[in-house]
Every structure is written in C-alpha cells, then in structure tokens.
Amino acid sequence: MTSKTLRDARSLAQAGLVPPERLPALETVAARYAVAITPAMATLIDGADDDDPIARQFIPASEELVVSPGEDGDPIGDNIHSPVDGIVHRYPDRVLLKPTHTCAVYCRFCFRREMVGPEGLANLTPAQLDAAFAYIAGRPEIWEVIVTGGDPFVLSPRRLAELMDRLEAIDHVKIVRFHTRVPAVDPDAVTEALVAALKRSTKAVYVALHANHARELTPAARAACARIIDAGVPMLSQTVLLRGVNDDPTTLAALMRAFVETRIRPYYLHHGDHAPGTAHLRTTLAEGQAIMKALRGTLSGLAQPTYVLDIPGGHGKVPVGPDYLTETGVEDPNGVVRVYPPRA
Predict the structure, then answer these.
(1) Model confidence over 265-302: pLDDT tens digits?
(2) What is the pTM of this model?
(3) Dist. CA 26–CA 14, nearest whole Å
(4) For strand 264-270 and strand 306-310, is the pairing parallel, antiparallel, or unpaired?
(5) What is the pLDDT of residue 297?
(6) Distances, alpha carbon 272 to alpha carbons 44, 129, 200, 268, 288, in Å
(7) Catalytic residues
(8) N or C: the chain end with fewer CB closer than 10 Å?
(9) DSSP of 307-334, one letter per residue?
(10) Using one digit for the tens of pLDDT, what is the confidence trace for 25-36?
C-alpha cells in the first residue's frame, strides 16, 4: 500500500497500478492534465483489471488527448458568470465560492480540469478573497453560498474556520454548502478540527459528497461521514454518470443504497459534461434515462437521485429524467401504460 499521494505516471507504475509499457503514453497525458491518487483510492484499484471502475476515474488514459466536437475548456460557463475572481453567480439566490483550485484527487472527467491542478488557477489571494466576500455581502438576494473549487476540504481547519467566520458575518446568507470528495478519498483528513470549523450558530451547513461507485464508501469513508453527520451537519451526494464506472442499474443502485446506509441523501446524478478529452467516459442522455427508469420501482425513494444536465455554455441545470406520461395515461414502473385520469 502506498503511503503518499501518487502524482505522476511513474509513481503509478511503481505502485503496480499501470504496466510499465504504458508509461510513455500516460506521461504525455499527465503533462496535460493533473494527476493525484490518494492512498485510500490507490488501495481500491485493481491494477490487473483494465476495466476497474476506480482506476477509470483517476488513472490517466490516452483517450484524454482526443478532443471531440463540442468539448470545451469551460463546458458549463463558469467564466461568463464570474463577476469577480473566485465567484460564479449563475442563479439569483446562490453563488459558488472557489477559494482553492487544488484537489485531493484529480478526476479524469473533471469539468474544471483546465482550471485545477498545478498548472491551473492559483488559490485566491487575500485581496481576491476580500473582493469575493464583498460581492456576497453586497447582494442581499444571495441566500446560499456553495464552497467548491477545487476541493475546499484540502484547506486547513483554520482556513475553513476563517471562511465560515466571514460568512457568519453576512446576515442574508442562510445556507452554506461544501462540495467535496475528501471524506471518501482521504477520510483521515476529516478530523474533529475540520468538522468543528464548519459549524456556526446562524447558518445551516450542508456537505455534498462526490462519489461514483459503492467501493469508494469504505468503512473509513463511512466513519469520516459519520463524524460530519453526528456533529449535526447533513450530507448530500453528487455522482457523475460515467461509462464503465456506474452506467448500469445494478451498480448505480448499489451506490445509492450505500449513500443512504451512510445517512447521505442522494441528490444529483450529473450527466457527463463536455470537458476536453472526456468523451470515452460519457454516456448518452438516452442511456442515462434508461438507467433511471430501471431504478424506479426497484429502488427506495430515499435512494433516487435527480438526473440532471448542466446545459453547455452556462445556461443552467435541468432535470432530464425519463418521462412517464403518454397520450393515453401514465407508464408504471413495470413499463405498462395505465389510463389516467381513471375512468368511472
């Protein structure tokens, strides 16, 4: 087992996660897009399985250098909705606050892959942070602040506490939501100090965990989530529908059940964004809708995420789940059309 984060192709080969003959190709990809695999995730990867779902998420692939039509470095329009550095204001009542562009792991499908990592955007400077908080403070319509990045949980507890102190001072902000992978990919980082940094007296705080396969919710990950939830901070899930990772009803159902067992409420299942070099990991919308239809009626309502598409170009998220209404009625979970309204 590796004891440190793997950050280049050679380290992946030395850890037995890729064969040496793949090194030249993977080094080319790693020179373009950041690589980082934590010990917790490296331990889960079966290096002998070319289709390992954890490997597909984190190990570079030569397909990443193939840019398909429609792919874009800013696929959901962060930049056009960024009035000041570190802020994305796409919806009236909420903003994204991105204090860091560093992550604990780098996903091969990341829609911000041009912005994160060693060659991406830097962390916000103190002056940029001041401007970001001034923007939030000056707009009373902002009800929720979503702290993302990068991954905000790579920040020290002290810095997280400072962020929360500043948000606490803005009365019209009622909700603070953190988006993170850390509880799953680096569970030991979820310390008592980190959890304590999240809590404030006047804000409702939520943590959204990004995980894409049930194997990511190890006992250590579940314990890390329990530390957050037991402190009174509810957790939600975010998942990306990924080819070869979770694009079948059985695998996705296992993940959603694992979330619920961990007391995490399934929230969004994201259709893959058109980030450069990610076509090999994207499904079609029709495939996603078929999976969601297969889950309906076989999976508890507690475990049903909302399947959403972030419309390319920054036009916002919309639900894209299957439609059960027909010209003559409504389709039941078994595919049988029932007359509705019922006849006398």
Answers:
(1) 999 999 999 999 999 999 999 999 999 999 998 999 99
(2) 0.95
(3) 13
(4) parallel
(5) 85
(6) 23, 30, 34, 12, 10
(7) 90-91, 94, 103, 107, 110, 112, 273, 310, 317
(8) C
(9) EEEE-TTT--EEE-PPP-B-SSEEE-TT
(10) 999 999 999 999
Cβ distance 116 to 154 under 8 Å? Answer: no
Do residues 222 and 262 lie in contact, with contact meaning Cβ atoms separated by under 8 Å? yes
The length of the chain, given as a count of residues: 344
Mean pLDDT of 4-24: 93
Cβ proximity of 143 and 94 under 8 Å? yes
Q: Which whole-number Å values give the CA distances from 215 to 18, 74, 82, 238, in the listed order? A: 20, 30, 36, 15
Which residues on neighbouring strands pair with residue 339, listed in sequence order?
A: 329
Give the closest residue to 98 by CA, choosing from 16, 213, 178.
178
What type of residue sits at position 320? V
* 104 exposure class (CB count in 10 Å sphere: 0-12, 13-18, 19+): buried
The helix (H) or strand (E) run that includes residue 89 is strand 87-91
Residue with tokens 């010209």: 327
Three-state secondary structure of 221-242: HHHHHHHHHHCCCCEEEEEECC
Residue 89's CB is within 10 A of a number of other CB atoms, namely 17
Tokens coding 114? 């041009």
Contact call for residues 252 and 295 (beta carbons, < 8 A): yes
